[in-house]
């Protein structure tokens, strides 16, 4: 199951709104079929792994990270395919909360005389499926707050755009995180001060950039900035105040800025940027299952205050910023009690501490 979960991560961020599921078909201790949900969400993992196994699937064990589906959706049910292939045993990590499945897949397999075990490595399985589960159960994306802080607890320097806090290895890891997430969000101040691009730029991961979202109540995103300039290649969503959006067209005013941004390929979403709960459900309706919040301080604080952060990644660099620094809303010392420390990773001189709370 651990191998199936690792395999499932291959397409994390590429299968929305479907989860990225891993499946291994094992016969006499040998893996005879392996697959992950295809890019775009279909075909599902099981049918591909069974196709690879062919006749060797007879009497084999299938390890699947999510309960095999039981519904006729875009594809026929995977449970039927497992039964038809003559699999003897199915081992599942997480049951599927999708109301079309939720236990029916397991029941179909058991009714056909297949030995079924569930809940195997469930904690790890749920972590790999966190975005899918959150969207299904709470109708919002799973939210990761990522902050890079200096040794003296600062996230940047006032009036100075981007400041290097972590080194190149940690920054490469951030690009991996971006590739895995459906969307990335920053506040309007950060978009203006830092002029970030927010894409995934590691070799081999360039086609896996997330949708970029900016909280931009007054539509003040600079037209010559990196976000707007690249909006026709990687989508940008500007979240503007709904009331202002409805206001009448004034030359040079809000409606004008909206149409200029439209022309540059930036989509404007009318939604109160201060009501983060309603914003997140709007994003979930668009199929966004995972969201990474990359700052700045005020945006991070508002997500924390609204109780909308599921996972915290605190990258810490060795240098100090000093008196002109912008204080981080979070340091190791004030992580709220509901988050548990799950791991520490080292990236060169930098450290990343991960904290999470249960779904
Ligand atoms: C599986 N194996 O690899 C995945 C599953 O729209 P459809 O027909 O593709 O169905 C989407 C649902 O299928 C999704 O909500 C979830 O319940 C399940 N995803 N199931 O057996 C897979 N990706
Ligand atoms: Zn399926």
Shape: globular
- Rg, please? 22 Å
Query: First CA to last CA: what distance?
Result: 21 Å
Based on secondary structure, the structural category is: alpha/beta
Largest sheet: 9 strands, mixed
The largest sheet has its strands arranged as 11-10-9-8-12-6-13-16-15
Number of helices: 13
Order of helices and strands: HEEHEHEHEHHEEHEHEHEHHEHEHEEEE
Mean pLDDT: 94
| Portion in helices | 25-40%
Report the sheet-strand fraction: 15-25%
What bound compounds does this protein have? ligand AOF, zinc ion
- Number of strand segments: 16
Unreliable spans: none
Binding site for substrate: 178, 198, 201, 294
Active site: 46
GO molecular function, one term: zinc ion binding
Keywords: Hydrolase, Metal-binding, Multifunctional enzyme, NADP, Oxidoreductase, Riboflavin biosynthesis, Zinc
Quickly describe the structure:
The protein is an alpha/beta fold. It is built from 13 helices and 16 strands.
